[in-house]
């Protein structure tokens, strides 16, 4: 199989490319390099620089490289920005997907893996979120991911394309320092940035109805996440007409306070966090049930929070050398 990985120069996409190669699959990367980094694409893997809104170029790449499956990660992914720029998010994430699916179906590509998000659930009022938990996204970003799932599923039903939507929970860690996340938009890098500045990490709210008052999330190592893509891709190509929606998490809740404690311990810092106001729109608890993916694909996360923090820190310190 030759897989077109859109967004393959991004943080998660580059890990998917690596996992695909490790599994003996061929990969071609399609990325507009708006946030992607060309150096993340391994030698020997073609990198085509282009937008998912460019159907003609996509069609050409699919034909020229004999693409048989697509893993679509290229998207805008900042929740706050999506509130300011909803039209941009709908264009990039929904229209870009629609154009890609047109090229995919015209070329009779057989498999399509879609990068979705736990953001489709919004503020779930359950202990463990299953794939049957109602989807009530709270941001334009989450809406574009839910609309994307609908588009993918409808296309699969109409054309026989094998499809899967993977709902990522909170992704952290890195396979190697070079592949680390360079954005400072999530808890782990935001705490690293504070520690690097010798400032206390910030806790956005400690009055949530959770055991220690801080928000609880399900953190997943990016290497585990990438391996879930390989398992999914293989199922799609082996079983035509597949239609899967899967949570990718560990099924274990970790609070903000617990994360900061582990980060302090593992990085050798001891700055107690500062509690500041809640960040608007943050749900108290979002933890996956990971039962369906275990039953369907036999996939289970291998790494824990300490591996995520240590590997992310190795990446952070290589990008932010201490003077
Ligand atoms: C985690 C917790 C913060 C920084 C978002 C998107 C989701 C997905 C992943 C996708 C929250 C708290 C953070 C800090 C803090 N995106 N926090 N101090 O909001 O769960 O999920 O990213 O592509 O769709 O919504 O992740 O890492 O931003 O925050 O207390 O300095 O850490 O309030 O409770 P979140 P996050």
TrEMBL record:
Residue span(s) of domain NAD-dependent epimerase/dehydratase: 3-249
Coiled-coil stretches noted in the UniProt entry, renumbered to this chain: none
Pathway where it operates: Carbohydrate metabolism; galactose metabolism
One Gene Ontology MF term: UDP-glucose 4-epimerase activity
Cofactor: NAD(+)
One Gene Ontology biological process: galactose catabolic process via UDP-galactose, Leloir pathway
Tree of life domain: Bacteria
Pfam family, one: Epimerase
Keyword Isomerase appears in the UniProt entry: yes
Catalytic activity from the UniProt record: UDP-alpha-D-glucose = UDP-alpha-D-galactose
EC identifiers of the protein: 5.1.3.2
Keyword entries, A-Z: Carbohydrate metabolism, Isomerase, NAD
Family classification: Belongs to the NAD(P)-dependent epimerase/dehydratase family.
Name of this protein: UDP-glucose 4-epimerase
Protein species of origin: Streptomyces ferrugineus
């Amino acid at each position: 199989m030759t897989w077109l990985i859109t967004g393959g120069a991004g943080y998660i996409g580059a890990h998917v490319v690596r996992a695909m190669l490790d599994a003996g699959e061929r990969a071609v990367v399609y990325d507009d390099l708006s946030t992607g980094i060309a150096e993340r694409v391994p030698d020997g893997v073609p990198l085509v620089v282009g937008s998912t809104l460019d159907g003609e170029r996509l069609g050409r790449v699919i034909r020229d490289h004999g693409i048989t499956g697509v893993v679509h990660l290229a998207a805008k992914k900042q929740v706050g920005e999506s509130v300011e720029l909803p039209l941009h998010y709908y264009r990039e994430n929904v229209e870009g997907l629609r154009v890609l699916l047109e090229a995919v179906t015209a070329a009779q590509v057989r498999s399509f893996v879609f990068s979705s998000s736990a953001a489709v659930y919004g503020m779930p009022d359950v202990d463990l979120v299953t794939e049957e938990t109602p989807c009530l996204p709270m941001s334009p970003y989450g809406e574009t991911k839910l609309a994307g799932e609908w588009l993918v599923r409808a296309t699969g039903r109409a054309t026989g394309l094998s499809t899967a939507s993977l709902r990522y929970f909170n992704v952290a860690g890195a396979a190697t320092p070079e592949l680390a996340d360079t954005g400072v938009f999530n808890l782990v890098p935001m705490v690293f940035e504070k520690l690097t500045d010798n400032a206390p990490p910030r806790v956005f709210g400690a009055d949530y109805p959770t055991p220690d008052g801080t928000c609880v999330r399900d953190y997943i190592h990016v290497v585990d996440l990438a391996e879930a893509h390989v398992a999914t891709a293989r199922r799609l190509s082996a079983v035509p007409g597949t239609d899967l929606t899967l949570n990718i998490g560990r099924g274990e809740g970790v609070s903000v306070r617990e994360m900061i404690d582990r980060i302090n311990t593992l990085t050798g810092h001891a700055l107690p966090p500062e509690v500041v106001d809640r960040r608007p729109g943050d749900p108290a608890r979002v933890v996956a049930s990971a039962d369906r993916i275990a039953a369907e694909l036999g996939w289970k996360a291998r790494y824990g929070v300490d591996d995520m923090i240590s590997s992310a820190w190795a990446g952070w310190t290589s990008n932010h050398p201490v003077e």
